[in-house]
Amino acid sequence: MRVLIAGGAGYVGSRLVPALCERGYDVEVMDLLWFGNHLPPDVRVHQRDLFGVTEDDLRGFDQVIFLGGLSNDPMAEFSPAQNFVANGALPAYLAFVAKKAGVKRLIYASSCSVYGYTEDQLYTEDDPVTCGYPYGISKLQGERAALQLQDDTFSVIALRQGTVCGWSPRMRFDLIVNTMVKAALTTGTITVNNPSIWRPLLDIRDDVSAFTRAVQASYKLSGVFNVASGNFTVGQVADLVKEELERETSQRVKLDIRDVQDFRNYKVSCERATVELGFRPQYSVKDMVAEVMEHRADFGDFERDEFYNIRVFKKMA
Ligand SMILES: NC(=O)c1ccc[n+]([C@@H]2O[C@H](COP(=O)([O-])OP(=O)(O)OC[C@H]3O[C@@H](n4cnc5c(N)ncnc54)[C@H](O)[C@@H]3O)[C@@H](O)[C@H]2O)c1
Q: What is the pTM of this model?
């Protein structure tokens, strides 16, 4: 089966692509390489803007996975107009061209960010979403536009990912667990902006398995699926990172608890992904920390710009 991974050289793609190749899929990547290319050398990578993709480019692919666009709130807020185009219009265009080219499925990397600020409720995919900030709205736009094209010949699966954390060859230290690990290692202190805020977190290995299940699902299946390894408060995450790091390093880690307002607060049910996709998360926060720590020697200076999407993005502006 031929699979095109659009935006496949980023943080998620750098683990998903080798995993799909390992399973025998014929994978190609199209990516602008904003963060370099950390993929295995035998992967076919086309350094191209997805906006330039034509029907001819997509003919012959069975599935397209969209991992591109602007992938966090700081990038979206730095450039809101570009964000709406890259996260809303671009997946809509790609889904449109893919369907015309005879591609059988598009898998869209959506986000639990669409849920906004919620309290005391476990959100399912059928619950109303309340986000009012550029990143969340744009991910919802992309999801809805792609799903609009779904029919008997074209399956669309949108995976609403929790915050993905853990190790990738294209490493990010701007994701909650990774940020806390870096802070503890470099300053000995983890800053907790608001310990009561809820977040679904997704170990990057569980994310790879969610995308794999989506690729393998019956073409009759379409829809939106929450995917997370678990729901945690930010305070719980800090405690788990602290415990695991103290065990690994035998150094004391301090917590600096603050009370900063957050515009995102949500926990999600992954029942639909479990029942319909066979998604079974296996990892938790301590596993994310342990895998990052296994690769600690590779990172060098934690302050390198390439680890932080917003810094690279501002330099390109
Ligand atoms: N990482 C997370 O916690 C998380 C959570 C929820 C959803 N998501 C979504 O999952 C996807 C992947 O996330 P990630 O962390 O791997 O992001 P990333 O920023 O590491 O990678 C995005 C990749 O897309 C490429 N790209 C962007 N625009 C492009 C264009 N026009 N043409 C070609 N290439 C382009 C970039 O070069 C980059 O390699 C994103 O769509 C993101 O919004 C991520």
A: 0.98
